[in-house]
Design brief:
homodimer, 10 strands, 111 residues, mainly beta, Jelly Rolls
């Protein structure tokens, strides 16, 4: 068993071309023995966004705080705390903060 | 892509022998196309607990609300919002609400 506190986890800039004002913390990953999937906290700051992108991994997300949208090539959906999202393999998606506070999401991904 | 609101998801009693005052909502599961892992919201009410148990699946958990503990056969750890826990395969664990409000946890599990 491994437990920790989010505020003690290293904060990185989300490493993706075109990303704006977005931080990522890897809460549980292979380093902690999680071989199947990882848990990250993604924080999209005011005015921040993650551009449309796709990858073979799925996402399972839970909105903790703030307001934003998740978008595909031709649609978008508003998100607020308590909302959850499943993004399938190779499904193009992006996210954007539409509010005044941080838009924080738990984002799990298979490894 | 599939998105939803936690408050619109069916609430079940956690089906386990010895469990007390604990609800579970399956937010993302095989029904939504998630073949690799599922995301649930587990709510341990005041005075509630999940007894020591083990299974071949791992857990990755994030505490949303309230106060409680996760325990093994010979230790326990206090948890509060923003804490996260990795439980490995076949590792015996249980949880208990130690506060006055609901102790709510996002609990992911491989399928």
């Amino acid at each position: 068993m491994y437990a920790g506190k989010t505020k003690e986890v290293k904060v990185d800039r989300l490493p993706m071309e075109g990303v704006k004002n977005t931080a990522i913390q890897w809460l549980i990953s292979e380093k902690e023995g999680a071989k199947k999937f990882a848990m990250r906290l993604v924080s999209i700051k005011k005015g921040g966004a993650i551009p449309l992108h796709s990858h073979p991994q799925i996402h399972e997300q839970y909105v903790l705080k703030g307001n934003g949208v998740i978008f595909t090539k031709d649609s978008e959906r508003e998100l607020s705390p308590g909302d959850f999202v499943f993004v399938d393999e190779n499904e193009a998606h992006g996210m954007r903060n539409t509010g005044d506070e941080d838009f924080d999401i738990i984002c799990c991904v298979n490894l």
